[in-house]
Design goal:
The chain is α/β, with parallel strands linked by helices. It has 13 helices and ten strands. It has a five-stranded mixed sheet with strand order 3-2-1-4-5, sandwiched between helices. Strands 8-7-6-9-10 form a five-stranded mixed sheet. The longest helix has 29 residues. The chain is globular, with a radius of gyration of 20 Å. The site of zinc ion (ZN) has 6 residues, from helix 5.
């Protein structure tokens, strides 16, 4: 963060320092963020090695691991921030969407801390956090298009001073879910997205012409057809007793990845052009995908549109993004009561997210 942004973030009185907690899926995370932009600490305990042997996240195992990790992770975040409990302004937590058992650990823990420390409590929507991650490393413009792509969500959102407007969402599988399911069918380890990204670097993207669901006339996405097409292709070959060489696995990974990135990038650029938005911001775990970044940048640049994405540490689930989103809520006085509950299908808070973006400009 530049000195200028740091000073700007501190202008206007006492700094707001929020201890944030994230436990919606398989990362136990805690962070302390000042004024929504300055990360004082950011600790992530990933459960990937634990779930890898099952080929995916096992919800019950995830909840138990969150229970073990949440206190040490939070203690470390507080220690590394160099702050005392008295210096904290609030406690924030991801309240949904996500795995209910995982969310419950974070929400119950944050409620207990807020009660014991006498601090206000803030409940944050997970996708709002992914969007707010963008503001941790740069000043976002007044208007832009966000392409949020994670394991649980794919959506295009228009963000401006008036509000935050979802333009389109996935009808079925999220982009990350498609990556993970296709990777599993290719016998690649969990999580599948990064493995496909890696394998695809040595494969041919035009080896197999997998279908694209364009859903013309909408900004919506659908990836379940692609997933079925890949599974059918593999099953038909396997039923004939055919096996796949490592080179063929690379080709299949590259072809499936191309189908996902082609649709995501083309639809994002078309929406930005139509809405006359000068910038497309990628957010969420899939924002780490190298092909998506390259294709989006290439197409957006050709259309005179800029692109940005967070560093890898802020693409994946983390608590700093929750602290960033919570700052806007704090400024608006949007506090939760101690009856805050985990909501695995929490609806998107349009106004809150919009005001988060607006508040950072202030
Ligand atoms: O945002 P995130 O960490 O958790 C959710 O909110 O779901 O996103 C996780 C998703 C997983 O599906 C993972 O496979 C995918 O992001 N992912 C990737 C890459 N890195 C993570 N997908 C494609 N390419 C990558 N490099
Ligand atoms: Zn996420």
């Amino acid at each position: 963060m530049t000195e200028e942004r740091m000073q700007a973030s501190q202008a206007g009185g006492e700094p707001v320092r929020i201890l944030a907690i994230e436990s919606s899926c398989d990362e136990t995370a805690a962070a302390v963020v000042e004024n929504g932009v300055r990360v004082l600490s950011n600790i992530i305990d990933s459960q990937i090695p634990i779930h890898r042997r099952f080929g995916g996240v096992v919800p019950e195992v995830a909840s138990r691991r969150h229970l073990q990790a949440i206190w040490p992770v939070t203690q470390q975040a507080l220690e590394e921030s160099g702050l005392t409990v008295e210096q904290l302004s609030a406690v924030a937590v991801t309240a949904g969407p996500g795995l209910v058992g995982s969310l419950l650990v974070g929400v119950s823990f944050a409620k207990a801390l807020a009660f014991a420390w006498g601090k206000p409590l803030i409940g944050v929507h997970h996708w709002q956090g992914h969007i707010a991650a963008l503001q941790l490393e740069r000043q976002m413009p007044r208007e832009y298009l966000a392409l949020v792509v994670s394991g649980s969500h794919s959506g295009l959102l228009k963000i401006n001073a008036q509000g935050l407007f979802p333009l389109g969402m996935s009808h079925d599988d999220a982009a990350g879910e498609a990556f993970d399911k296709i990777a599993r069918a290719l016998y690649l380890p969990y999580p599948g997205g990064p493995e496909i990204d890696k394998a695809a670097k040595n494969g041919r993207a035009d080896a197999v012409a997998f279908p694209r669901a364009w859903l013309e006339g909408t900004d919506d996405f659908s990836f379940s057809g692609l997933k079925s097409a890949v599974l059918n292709y593999l099953n038909q070959r396997r039923m004939k007793g055919e096996d796949f060489s490592p080179a063929e696995i690379n080709d299949l990974a590259a072809s499936a990845q191309e189908a996902i990135c082609d649709v995501l990038s083309a639809k994002a650029v078309a929406a930005a052009q139509r809405e006359k938005l000068p910038l497309i911001a990628l957010a969420g775990g899939v924002a780490a995908n190298s092909r998506l970044r390259a294709l989006l940048q290439q197409r957006a640049t050709a259309a005179g549109i800029e692109t940005v994405w967070p560093s890898p540490i802020y693409c994946t689930d983390n608590a700093a993004m929750i602290g960033a989103a919570a700052y806007g809520e704090y400024r608006l006085g949007h506090f939760a009561s101690l009856s805050l509950n985990a909501d695995p299908r929490k609806p998107f808070p349009l106004q809150a997210a919009a005001k988060t973006a607006a508040s950072v400009k202030a």
